[in-house]
User: What shape does this take?
Amino acid sequence: MTHQTSPRNPAHAAATPRDFSFAVGSRLTGPDGQPRPGRTGTITTPHGTIQTPAFIPVATQATVKAVLPEAMGELGAQALLANAYHLYLQPGADLLDEAGGLGQFMNWHGPTFTDSGGFQVMSLGSGFKKVIDMAGPKAPSGQGADDAVAPGKERLANVDEDGVWFKSHLNGDRHRFTPEVSVGIQHQLGADIMFAFDELTTLHNSRGYQEEALERTRRWAQRCLDEHARLTGERAAKPYQALFGVIQGAQYEDLRRKACGDLAAMRTGFPDGGGHGDSQDLEHGFDGYGIGGALEKANLGTIVSWCAEELPEDKPRHLLGISEPDDLFTAVENGADTFDCVSPTRVARTGAFYTSGGRFNLPGAKYKRDFSPLEEGCDCYTCAHYTRAYIHHLIKAKEMVAHTLISVHNERFTVRLVDRIRVSIQDGTFWDLKDEVLGRYYAPKA
Assistant: This one.
C-alpha cells in the first residue's frame, strides 16, 4: 500500500490547524432503521489520509515489533502509533526531530500518531497491565484503592498537581513530565496526531480520586492546548500536528460527559498563518478526541456512546487500546472512528494466531504436520508463503522470524476486519457482518 504525502495548503505558508481535517461519510443505521452513532469518515493529515473506521497498529519504539514498516504498508495499515515516553527515553526526541520526524526516521511515509505518556502514569505508577477490564480487588463501599500497586511491582510514577515524576525502567533515572514537556516531546517526534497529557486512573481508584484526577486532567488539557499553539507558531515551517484531548472519567456517566463538554469547549489562539498579519490569531480547540481510561468490557459501548453524544460531530474520536473483534464492532457502532492496540503482535510472540474461527495457539503439537496456511483464504504475506507446520517448527526452534510471520498475519487480520466493517457501513450490511463474524469467531471450539 502506497501512502502519498499531501501538499501544504497553498492558501497559507505556515502550519495551522487548517492542515488537518475530518469529514463524515456514511452513517450507520440500526436494525430498526434508527440512526446510530457509528459512521465512516476521512481524516486528512499532512502525510496522507485515513479512511475510518481504521485500526492503527502500535509501533511503540518507532517499530511494530518484529515487522518492517514497509510490511505494515503492504498489509494495509493506514497509520502507526508510537509511544512518546519510550522514544523520549531512547533514542531521544531531539534525535527524531533532527532525523526529520518519526515517519522519516522509521521509513514510514503515511500518517503517524504518538501518545502522550499518560498511559505510563498508570502503568508505571501502579504496575497494572494494560487491559480494558482491569480486574482486581476493590475496597468495600466503593472507596477504591487509590494507592494500589500490583503485587511485586514498584511505583515508578508519582503524580502531583503540576505533572509527573517518572523513574526510568531502563536505568532508574528520574524524569519530569508536565503537559508542556509532553507536548514539546511530541512536537519533536513530529507525529501527525498527538494526544494531550492526562492522568490515566484504574478501576481500583475511588470515586473521589476519579473526580480529582479528572479535574487535574482538565487543567492539564488546557495547558497542552496552549503549549501546542505556541509550538505550532514557533515551528511554523514544520507540517501541522493535530492535538487530541483525552476523555477520562472511568465508569461514571456524569464524569465522562463532563470531560467531553469541558474539552470540547476549550480554545486557544493559534498564529493565523494565512497572510493576514501577525496581529490575528485563529481561535481553535482540539482537533479530535481520545477516549481513554480503564473500563469494564461490558460497559465499553455505553461509555463510547456517552462520549459520542457529547463530542463535536465534526471531530474524530480515537478509542485507546482495543482490538478484539467484539470490541471493534461495539466501538464502531457506538461512535469510535479509530483505535489502536498492541495485542496482535503481543499474542503473536506467544505463538497465538487469529482466524475467522477464533484464536489458536500454534505451539500445540497438532500443528507439527499441518501444512495449511495460518488461515485458508487469508491474503497476507505469511499465509501466501508459509505453513503452520513451518512456523510451528520456528517456534520450537526459538527462531525470531516466527514472531514476524505470525505478527504480519495478526495485524493483517485486524486491519482487514476493520476495513470490512467500514465497507459494511457504506453498503448497509453492518449488522449482518457483525452476526457472521462474531458468530464464527466466538463459536465453541471443538
